[in-house]
Amino acid sequence: AQSVTQPDIHITVSEGASLELRCNYSYGATPYLFWYVQSPGQGLQLLLKYFSGDTLVQGIKGFEAEFKRSQSSFNLRKPSVHWSDAAEYFCAVGPYNTDKLIFGTGTRLQVFP
Amino acid sequence: ETGVTQTPRHLVMGMTNKKSLKCEQHLGHNAMYWYKQSAKKPLELMFVYSLEERVENNSVPSRFSPECPNSSHLFLHLHTLQPEDSALYLCASSQSRGALTDTQYFGPGTRLTVL
């Protein structure tokens, strides 16, 4: 069965520091991979997605993610975090030709000034 | 603003009440979705509609009844809910279904509390 694991429930970083949020997936073939962000009181917003091709994906708000097939990972990174990045981040997997996204439990990011 | 609106934003109801959640998308999309977001649990897909036809019901109890009168509107009718149904209910839309290359756009959600 497909699944997504986000091992870090809560991460705290200082503003200006680099960030890496971990995501591991379980799926028999190459899945479609997504990162979403949810700010307090808001719905989910797509940050970036990977379908095929270059394994380093650029997204909005300065985020990027790297697909590593050998590690079944799709970690999200940002070189310098801003206070406005404080939110909850969700990794999701989508098997091909279905609209059924499978989400991880999320990582809450707290940013200190 | 994502182009997907949900009303009400907050709802408190008793277990014997009947209420409805409304979702409207202004993006010209053909597919709409209901998700349930419970604390400390992954987001769960509840229903999928494509061109006003329900194409997936993800083993949701019958006390949740969806309705899609047209491609812009989606409702979730609630009756005789249980306290464990308290959650954030999110609506989403995409250009089409069956192809994850179409980004899903989410509304802000309705925070439901069942007493």
Uncertain segments of chain A of ≥5 residues (pLDDT<50)?
Answer: none
Helix-and-strand structural type of chain A: mainly beta
Our Rg estimate of chain A from Cα atoms comes to: 13 Å
Q: How many beta-strand runs of chain B? A: 11
Report the largest inter-chain contact.
Answer: A-B, 26 and 28 residues
What does this structure look like?
The complex is a heterodimer of chains A (113) and B (115). In chain A, 0% of the residues lie in helices and 51% in strands. Chain A has strands at 3-5, 10-14, 19-21, 24-26, 32-38, 44-50, 56-58, 64-68, 73-78, 87-94, 102-103, 107-112. In chain A, the strands form three sheets. In chain A, strands 2, 5, 6, 10, 11 and 12 form a six-stranded mixed sheet that branches. In chain A, a hairpin with a 7-residue loop joins strand 10 and strand 11 (102-103). Chain A is globular. Chain A starts with a strand and ends with a strand. The model of chain A has no long low-confidence stretch (mean pLDDT 91). Chain B has 115 residues and is mainly beta. Chain B is built from no helices and eleven strands. Chain B has strands at 4-7, 10-13, 18-25, 31-37, 44-50, 53-57, 64-70, 73-79, 87-94, 105-106, 110-114. In chain B, strands 2, 4, 5, 6, 9, 10 and 11 form a seven-stranded mixed sheet that branches. The radius of gyration of chain B is 13 Å and the shape is globular. The A-B interface holds A 4, 32, 34, 36, 41-46, 49, 51, 90, 92, 94, 96-106 and B 2, 4, 6, 31, 33, 40-43, 45, 48, 56, 58, 90, 92, 94, 97-101, 103-109.
Topology:
The complex is a heterodimer of chains A (113) and B (115).
Chain A: E1 3-5, E2 10-14, E3 19-21, E4 24-26, E5 32-38, E6 44-50, E7 56-58, E8 64-68, E9 73-78, E10 87-94, E11 102-103, E12 107-112
Chain B: E1 4-7, E2 10-13, E3 18-25, E4 31-37, E5 44-50, E6 53-57, E7 64-70, E8 73-79, E9 87-94, E10 105-106, E11 110-114
Parallel strand pairs in B: 2-11
Antiparallel strand pairs in B: 1-3, 3-8, 4-5, 4-9, 5-6, 7-8, 9-10, 9-11
